[in-house]
Design goal:
Elements: H1 5-16, H2 42-51, H3 54-58, H4 77-95, H5 99-108, H6 117-127, H7 134-149, H8 156-163, H9 174-198, H10 208-214, H11 218-238, H12 248-266, H13 275-291, H14 298-301, H15 309-318, H16 322-333
Length: 340
Amino acid sequence: MDFSYRELQDKKEREYLSPFAFLSSETAGRLEPIEMCELRTAFQRDRDRIIHAKSFRRLMHKTQCFLSPEGDHYRTRLTHTLEVSQIGRSVARLLRLNEDLVEAACLGHDLGHTPFGHAGERVLAQLCPEGFSHNEQSIRTVTVLERDGKGLNLTVEVLDAILCHTGPVPAKTLEGRLIKYADRIAYINHDIDDAIRAGVLTDDMIPVKYSRILGYDHSHRIDTMVKSLVAGTLENFEKGIAELRMSPEVEEATLGLREFMFENVYINSLAKKEEGKACEMLAKMYEYFVKNPDRMPADNKKFLGQYSDHRVVADYLAGMTDRYALEVFSELFVPKMWGR
């Protein structure tokens, strides 16, 4: 091909994006060097690799907040990921940051998440001697486990953004730091929506001191948070400061609302009463497969010897969907009924 559409896109980025944006043409590259695509920028290519990954499809059947809810309208880990991506892209576009880098990182940020939400993550963190966190597992998923052990070979910048979307270490790019904001805005608001749908919360239960600042419904809360993030960051940009920022009032209300959700939904909610069973189930399977690693599927067993048995078992369990975990547990520990 004589004409490179990717080069045209690189040129448009240099002309249009903010001086604080990270340009696709300046990527530090990949763990395994490959020839540049003639059609897509490096980060567009990452986005496509993530969307076509098996771990991305499995998010459809993994818990977001409420464990195995009845009803079609509760969020899953996949719909959460899509909402994070939508918020991240919208903010990036308004700030003239690299929207493709933001989108790829948003779509990949939870690929290593466990079944049964953060309850599953806590179980593996307690049992695996090498430790476990979903952001680090997302990196392991895209660098080691995907594509039959070849990994997705993503760019350094996308990997950094995925790793740093949670925890105290900030991502190296502004686009990477935006993922943490987009993730928080998404889950606080959609978890409130799901909690109200489940009857765990009512609108009246949300503290008025937060609603007065953020808004009294789902749409207005997101609108307030996004507008504040954009306005505060643009003020910083005008001063030559490359930092994301909400107004202090909105930031304080957002963190207060997050704390309210931890106290009333994420930890003490009646909707969480089944999590103890899920934790016991995962712990029992973990113990079983550590003792019987040969009983894992061939796709997982091939990593035995390269990594510790504990790490390979954690990989296997983390990759499960909720329903697959239930099926495996039933196969291992629930007696079968004899036919007549």
